[in-house]
Automatic annotation (TrEMBL):
Keywords annotated in UniProt: Cytoplasm, GTP-binding, Hydrolase, Magnesium, Metal-binding, Nucleotide-binding
Boundaries of every OBG-type G domain copy: 161-338
Residue ranges of domain OCT in the record: 358-436
Superkingdom per UniProt: Bacteria
GO cellular component, one term: cytoplasm
Binding-site residues for Mg(2+), renumbered to this chain: 174, 194
Matches recorded under SUPFAM superfamilies: Obg GTP-binding protein C-terminal domain (SSF102741), Obg GTP-binding protein N-terminal domain (SSF82051), P-loop containing nucleoside triphosphate hydrolases (SSF52540)
Span list, region Disordered: 127-146
Listed name of the protein: GTPase Obg
Length: 436
């Protein structure tokens, strides 16, 4: 089984904030001791950290759930609970993180050591020391901790390489990579020898260096799922230059120019923007019979499909076996890389809007619906968060929650919808009677 994995779906949950405490001063010589309950600690965040030592998302194959620790509860003497440590999750360079529900890109992690908070921990609940007022100097009110953010994420690895090798199976891409770098890809005389992307570093004679990725062979119809399909086409999206390797010996019985057109069509079908990347045509296997004649015919067909004012792609005849023409090819590739800027991988429309961790003033505070059993159901982010953070073990906290609902206009809205005295009202799994 291949140990390479470039997609994963995981669930992350940040830590819940610690509950606030209800406590009172009880010193011998303090006759009117007031509230002394401290606040809960902050819940831990879930943080992605880029680790350049990782090359695959294999770690996420069996471990798909990541949960940060909750904050400590508040303590007596007004002491705050300890905040929880963040949960650090290591990911390889080139990992794109998407929201599984919306499909929007949350972040693109490409630099070693880069950090990004994918789920924020909840704040700690307030202790009763926070609720003391002149009217109520000894409140028995505290808050539960705020729930941590929970979300489902899609991880997608796109290898970081300056140059991508593309072409039909068995045109010599893996052999070329093994000759120009120290990489040791599997090489065999059959189709789809390469079933995972291979990466290697090239150093030219002039001292330039760049990363090259050998991508599994494409075939006609790959963008529709034929062969290995689009499984590895994503890895070419980060490259700045494409080396289009073609078997000029036509040893497979195919026409080299038709191969060239077919591969470009698959790249265009997968992502039109791939055609913006400059291409160098690598005429491989020039040590074989008929290669020179086929190259002449290839150049004629290529020129016939370009206008006289259009610049033809560079063509470099090479032989990976005899190492003929490799130095010239690598120097030209390095020169083209120097002139080619980074390509924008994602449009603004692909990116998730900057998250706001608070209440949206424009969003409705609550919504009312009716269940099949005639129970009134209250929902809404603001209302549900207030409910979750209410300590229902204390009568004063329950009364405070009732006042908050009334202040939000819940009572009036229920009456307007036809609620009567004694009707059941549900928030989550909690039910109570409506009192008119």
């Amino acid at each position: 089984m291949s140990m390479f994995l470039d997609t994963a779906k995981i669930q992350v949950k940040a830590g819940k904030g610690g509950d606030g405490m209800v406590a009172f001063r009880r010193e011998k010589y303090v006759p009117n001791g007031g509230p002394w309950g401290g606040d809960g600690g902050r819940g831990g965040d879930v943080v992605f950290v880029v680790d350049e030592g990782l090359r695959t998302l294999m770690d996420f194959r069996y471990n798909r759930h990541f949960k940060a620790q909750s904050g400590e509860k508040g303590m007596t003497k007004g002491m705050h609970g300890r905040g929880a440590e963040d949960l650090l999750v290591r990911v390889p360079q080139g990992t794109t993180v998407r929201d599984a529900e919306t499909g929007k890109v949350i972040t693109d992690l490409i630099e070693h050591g880069q950090r990004f908070v994918v789920a924020h921990g909840g704040r700690g609940g307030r202790g009763n020391i926070r609720f003391a007022t002149p009217k109520n100097p000894a409140p028995e009110i505290s808050e539960n901790g705020e729930p941590g953010q929970e979300r489902e994420l899609l991880l997608e690895l796109k290898v970081l390489a300056d140059v991508g090798l593309v072409g039909f199976p068995s045109v010599g891409k893996s052999t070329l990579l093994s000759v120009i770098t120290s990489a040791k890809p599997k090489i065999g005389a059959y189709h789809f020898t390469t079933i995972v992307p291979n990466l290697g570093m090239v150093r030219t004679q002039s001292g330039e260096s760049f990363a090259v990725a050998d991508l599994p062979g494409l075939i006609e119809g790959a963008s529709q799922g034929v062969g290995l399909g689009t499984q590895f086409l994503r890895h070419i999206e980060r490259t700045r230059v494409i080396l289009h390797v073609i078997d000029m010996s036509a040893s497979e019985g195919r026409d080299p120019y038709e191969d060239y057109l077919a591969i470009n069509k698959e790249l265009e079908s997968y992502n039109l923007r791939l055609m913006e990347r400059p291409q160098i045509i690598v005429a491989n296997k020039m040590d074989m019979p008929d290669s020179a004649e086929n190259l002449k015919e290839f150049k004629k067909k290529l020129a016939a499909n370009y206008d006289e004012f259009e610049e033809l792609p560079q063509i470099f005849p090479i032989s990976s076996l005899t190492k003929q023409g490799l130095a010239t090819l690598l120097d030209a590739t390095a020169e083209l890389l120097d002139k080619t800027a980074e390509f924008l991988l994602y449009e603004e429309s692909d990116m998730e809007d900057e998250a706001y961790y608070g209440f949206d003033e424009e969003a409705p505070a609550f919504e009312i619906s009716r269940d099949d059993d005639a129970t009134w159901v209250l929902s809404g982010d603001k209302l549900e968060k207030l409910f979750t953070m209410t300590n229902f073990d204390r009568d004063e906290s329950i009364m405070k929650f009732s006042r908050q609902l009334r202040g939000m206009g819940v009572d009036e809205a229920l009456r307007a919808r036809g609620a009567k005295d004694g009707d059941l009202v549900r928030i989550g799994k909690f039910e109570f009677e409506f009192v008119d």
